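Look over this one:
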Amino acid sequence: MERTVAKEAVTEVRPMKRDHYAMIINGERVESSSSEVFETYNPAKGEVLATVAKANKEDAEMAVQAARNAFDHGKWRKYPVGKRSRVLNKIAAIMRERFNELVEMEVLNSGKAASAAQIQINQSIEDFEFYAGAIVGHRGTVNNMPYGFFNYTNKEPVGVCAQIIPWNYPMMMAAWKIAPAIATGCSVIIKPASLTPITAIILNEICHEAGVPEGVVNTIPGSGSVVGDYLVEHDDINKVAFTGSTSTGKDIMAKSSQTIKRLTLELGGKSPNIVFEDADLEAAIPGSLFGIFFNTGQSCEARSRMFVHESIYDEFMEKFIAKTEKLQSGDPFNKGTHLGSIISNDQVEVIDAYVQSAREAGATIATGGKKATIEGFENGHWYEPTVITDVTPDMKAVKEEIFGPVVVVEKFSDEKDVVKRANDTRYGLGSSIWTTNQARATRVAHKIEAGIVMVNSPFSAFPGTPFGGYKQSGFGRELCVETLDLYMEDKSVLSYYGPKPINPFGV
């Protein structure tokens, strides 16, 4: 059926901040075939920020066909790798030129503090620069064979990739997924979170401005249960990359299994933060503070379970709580703001329910523990940075991912005990260790069941370092050279060059 909706080439550069955002399919700004739109909000103020075209199954099919055609018949995968590399560097250059605008839009649509958005936009830029370099040296192998045989492997792009990204790091997660996929020659369809679709759309526009051909990158905002499911189950989608909740990841895994799709899952976490008795408290206290409260605690690898050795517990907690109470929530654009808003009122209610369940189960709310009201942002969604003590392992707040500015704290007495307790979770994404004993740091790091172990530092990810989880935190690694292989097939080519014809049956 021929579409009657208006189309416009994306090559026309528009201001980032506008009242309406269209989908991007096959290099064109496209409205929904149903003419439906949805409102996206500024969560810090609780106000409508813009309207966005709402994709449906017909629109998703158009995106799949555009991506399929670009992969099967287009020129992107045929480009010399150096040419693709130059385009990725051009994307990074445009992003750097428009850095302040990107930060502004990320803050407006997610409510995060500008200081956090600056870090995330900068890493998004570095992601494209990293993969622009990594793909140039990524090649197959020549293997040892018996005389007369020659074998080499050729790395080929896997095909059309559906990439489903979350609301907590909208631009950064889009960059994590788009950059390695298009570096290898794949075509992609981005399904951004409905709460934060704007910067993913803008990034797609930048890709086209930089020279990515039509159909290689497509963005279709819409319902996960409609658009996301359609992509996951589609025969013409070769790979799915998803970042989000473990429950949704399980559903995607089941549905994608029907067509044996390649799959990368980066899911939930309940990461431990272990402070040993010999830790440098001048580093451990502010590092632990950042580990849980960065991005207002809305991070999959947030160190939300803190274990403090009993011999330093009182001193550590006194100082930790005092610093927590100094954290500033408020205007996300204020340089002194540490914590931005919560993404939605629904998420505020989820966070508060966990906190109140801990209180009812006998835990102590050492500080925080309630919704916050910020002057000038009274209609926004805010929650106080919260520290909960006197918890037990069976409490919901200890076992389940809260996804907010809430940390639960336990004492421990010895290394063996704390490792066991740290690993007593279905998750295995991040972890932190604070100790001045290098032997202990190495020993414990090897015992922790997590994809990321941070030693005497709260930082979990830089371009080039693998990011991903154990257990129900998912599988596959992003942000590293190895990620390229998740978007490629290894083809083995076996040739015979012997002087005599092969006649295995001898007839």
Notes: The mean pLDDT is 97. Residues 40 and 185 are 32 Å apart (CA to CA). Residues 114-134 form the longest helix (21 residues).
